[in-house]
Design brief:
Elements lengths: L4 H5 L4 E6 L3 H14 L4 E7 L5 H7 L4 E5 L7 H11 L4 E6 L4 H10 L3 E4 L4 H10 L9 H9 L9 H4 L2 H11 L4 H8 L3 H15 L4 H10 L10
Parallel strand pairs: 1-2, 1-3, 3-4, 4-5
Length: 229
């Protein structure tokens, strides 16, 4: 799921912490991102110690944490969970050299806002890093398609029928990748109320992130919002 260029252009400067145990990769990315983003993305710190990630993110008041999934213990998934506990407002993007479905799903359940391959050009990382701050979920189309094609576990198919019409409408908005700001506008509520409603919906659905909510919507054939009430 990807944002429009206009949405990305509206973003302010984004402060990023890189958590990766390959110094050459993280230092190279730290040097390249400010240039290819025209100064919109600033790497404020890097660490190769997953156990130090949460404290570093909190210390630097980070907007986005980019976390390598395959690190020495504690691994990237545990680092993601620790960051979410330390500061739930920080958006997290998982990185990996391989798009392993199980590893990606674990990262999403731990609180990542999306996943990107480490093989991507630095230019292709800019829009996702800007987009996650608007509530977008970032995941490659081919991987998302495979996740959506997974069979629905027992009990999921009747979930939509157990929700109210308002909850189903909000779920469609989330599944369509609608930003928090646009959800607030659509529902005629404040942005703070929209965040609260989305958080409540995720709890009701039994998922941790918008990506999981979108994948669940695909499995139960919820359909897109399409402007319907």
């Amino acid at each position: 799921m990807e944002p429009s260029d206009a949405g990305a252009q509206r973003r302010r400067q984004v402060d990023v912490v890189l958590v990766d145990d390959h110094p050459l990769f993280s230092r190279g990315l730290a040097l390249l991102l400010p240039g290819v983003s025209e100064g919109r993305v600033r790497v404020v710190a890097t660490t190769d110690d997953a156990s130090a990630a949460a404290a570093m993110v909190r210390r630097h008041h980070t907007d986005v944490a980019v976390v390598d999934l395959h690190m020495p213990p504690p691994d990237g998934t545990r680092a993601i969970a620790a960051i979410r506990r330390a500061d739930p407002t920080v958006r997290i993007v998982a990185l990996s050299g391989q798009a392993e479905e199980d590893a990606v799903l674990e990262a999403l359940r731990a609180g990542a806002a999306g996943f990107l391959p480490k093989t991507a050009d630095p230019e292709r990382l800019v829009r996702p890093l800007l987009a996650v701050l608007d509530g977008w979920s970032v995941i490659p189309e081919d991987l998302l398609r495979r996740l959506l094609e997974d069979s629905a576990p027992t009990g999921e198919q009747g979930l939509a029928e157990r929700l109210t019409a308002d909850e189903r409408r909000l779920w469609r908005l989330v599944a369509d990748g609608t930003s928090t700001v646009d959800i607030a506008t659509t529902l005629h509520v404040s942005e703070r109320t929209a965040k609260r409603l989305v958080a409540a919906l995720l709890r009701t659905l039994g998922v941790a992130t918008r990506v999981e909510a979108a994948a669940l919507a695909g499995r139960v054939h919820l359909g897109s919002n399409g402007g319907n009430q």
